[in-house]
Structures are given as C-alpha cells and as structure tokens.
Amino acid sequence: MRKINFYHLENGDCPVQDYLDTLSNKQMEKVFFVLDLIENLDIVPSKFFKKLEATDDIWEARIQYGNNIFRLFGFFDGNDLIILNHAFTKKTQKTPAKEIKIAECRKKEYFTRRR
Hints:
The protein has 115 residues and is α+β, with helices and mostly antiparallel strands. Helix content is 35%, strand content 30%. The protein has helices at 15-20, 25-40, 97-114; strands at 3-6, 49-51, 59-65, 68-77, 81-90. A 5-stranded mixed β-sheet has the order 1-5-4-3-2.
C-alpha cells in the first residue's frame, strides 16, 4: 500500500493544497477518488497514474472531471511514499514543459532539505 503526502515549500506553504482549494467540491471528490486508487491498488491503471517520459522520475496523477483535466505531479520517496508537489489544470494536448520543470525543481529541493 502506498502513502501520499503533499510537498511543502520551505516557508510552509503547500502548493498542491492551495490548488485543490480552488476546485469545487465535486471536482475535489474526483481528485480524492483517484488519489485513493493510487494509494490502495497494487496496479494502478495508467489512465489515473503514470510516469512521465523524459523527466527526472516525475509521476502524474491524472484526473478528468467533465471537460476539466487536472494533473498532480510528484515523485517517489522510497518504494511506497509518493510526494505530490505540483498541480495544475491541463488546457493543451501536450503537458507544458514549464509545469514539469516546477515539479523537477521541487523534487530536488525536497531531497536537498531532507539531508
């Protein structure tokens, strides 16, 4: 079983929680439904969770609610702990490189601070 934690900036802010706070209750329910699947299924369908190609081991939680597509980026800390560190609403077919870059920078900062 996996565990999901949200990343906190050095000043204590939590970018993923801040993003989730902008969603409606129904949208938030769908996000937490997908996060629950990721935590509890041994094999999560790639429709909901997959590793992004050509990244520094960044994974994305994929949520669709109506016409809205939400992405939560994160990484593994060990085998079973997932740290979600960035979230955004996807508006284009291709994932914007700047969104991936934010997640990669926060991953580096996380491991630097942990040492």
